[in-house]
Design brief:
alpha/beta; TIM Barrel; 2 domains; three-stranded antiparallel β-sheet; 11 strands
Length: 370
């Protein structure tokens, strides 16, 4: 059972996220149970020319690869697996059944995630998977489900009855996506506390994400601070005394909670996204100017405000520190012979370091809570 000391990071299942998990220390991993959102194959990476091709690749390749990636990135510990972003519906059914089966061949512990709004076929499939493999189930509800808790209770009871399950077997996840205004967040928390038999669910998790869709409001070559409202709102609410059950914290790290598949085809800026206690520090660069990563890293590690956590805090911080220290050597090489000026790191590596640092910060924050 997850407690308030645990952390559920919600991660799009991409190479950067996988690497961020690989880089965690074992003591950090014991405080987490990630929820991975599997995405459709991307044309740039897989040569996909059409949806039909993507479906074939997902069936023939990804359902075999994903369990191996989980083993490499996370190991045999339990992990939530969500296929909400997979389409069409029959591919989602095929994917969950085969990913779980292939995970169990590797002795992994996947917990299927489904939404209360999913169709009956998918719910029954996940229930049958749980019966066959004893996986458990994570049930995801949204802010709209909380508007009428009487209706919600009826839906939850119908779900349990249809699947032949008890609440004690289900991890209940309330996902607000991007509701970051405190008043709306507080209302959602209050409504969630009205769910019948709230203490009976195996776990009670509250997710939100306040990282922006893009950095259009950030200025280049300046210190931009973006409030971590998801963390601040949760932290403020759990300190109140009226809650019947305090939820486990979940967020979307340094990613926007709403996945926009079309944006994956655009080149991102060379920007460092660095998690602080209550804010994100963003050092924004230009597109495909990888050398700017080094300059931003140097500014961060030498900042007079001492935002940098230190190279020993996490693998992500060690990467940032090494790149910042390398800036002068890179500038010299670039001046002497531009062809020898290498080692800036690519976008994937910088996202990997940023997510790893974020995971480490949140785990550290939660471990210190009374």
């Amino acid at each position: 059972m997850l407690t308030t000391r645990h952390y559920v990071p919600i991660l799009k299942w991409k190479r950067a996220e996988q690497g961020a998990l690989i880089d965690l220390r074992e003591d950090q991993k014991t405080l987490m149970m990630p929820l991975i959102e599997v995405v459709m194959p991307k044309p740039k990476d897989s040569g996909v020319a059409s949806l039909d091709d993507a479906v074939v690749i997902f069936k023939d390749v990804r359902t075999l690869e994903i369990p191996k990636e989980i083993l490499q990135s996370w190991g045999e510990d339990p992990i939530f697996v969500d296929l909400s972003l997979i389409y069409p519906s029959d591919l989602k059914l095929f994917g969950m059944e085969n990913i779980v089966r292939n995970c169990h061949i590797l002795r992994l512990s996947p917990v299927p995630v489904l939404n209360l709004s999913d169709d009956d076929n998918y719910k029954l499939l996940v229930a049958s998977i749980n019966k066959e493999h004893n996986t458990g189930i994570c049930l995801r509800i949204t802010s709209s489900d909380l508007k009428d808790t009487g209706v919600l209770d009826a839906k939850l009871q119908k779900f349990l009855s249809d699947c032949g399950l008890n609440a004690s077997a289900i991890d209940l996840l309330v996902d607000l996506k991007d509701i970051t205004e405190f008043d709306k967040y507080k209302i959602a928390v209050q409504q969630s506390q009205k769910i019948s038999n709230l203490k009976e669910w195996k776990s009670f998790i509250f997710a939100d994400g306040s990282y922006p869709q893009d950095l259009s409001n950030c200025r280049k070559d300046e210190y931009n601070l973006i409030p971590r409202n998801d963390w601040k709102n949760w932290n403020k609410q759990v300190k109140t005394e009226w809650m019947s059950r305090i939820p486990t914290y979940a967020d979307y790290t340094i990613r926007h909670p709403i996945y926009n598949e079309s944006l994956q085809m655009f080149h991102p800026t060379a920007s460092i996204k660095y998690t602080l206690e209550d804010n994100w520090l963003v050092l924004k660069g230009e597109k495909q100017r990888f050398d700017q990563f080094l300059g931003h890293a140097k500014l961060l590690i030498e900042s007079p405000n001492k935002e940098f956590y230190g190279e020993e805090f996490s693998a992500g911080d060690k990467y940032i520190s090494d790149k910042g220290k390398y800036y002068e050597e890179y500038a010299r090489k670039k001046k002497e012979d531009p062809k020898k000026a290498k080692g800036t790191g690519n976008t994937e590596q910088w996202i990997r370091s940023g997510i790893n640092h974020h995971l480490s910060v949140v785990a550290d924050q939660l471990s210190k809570m009374v």
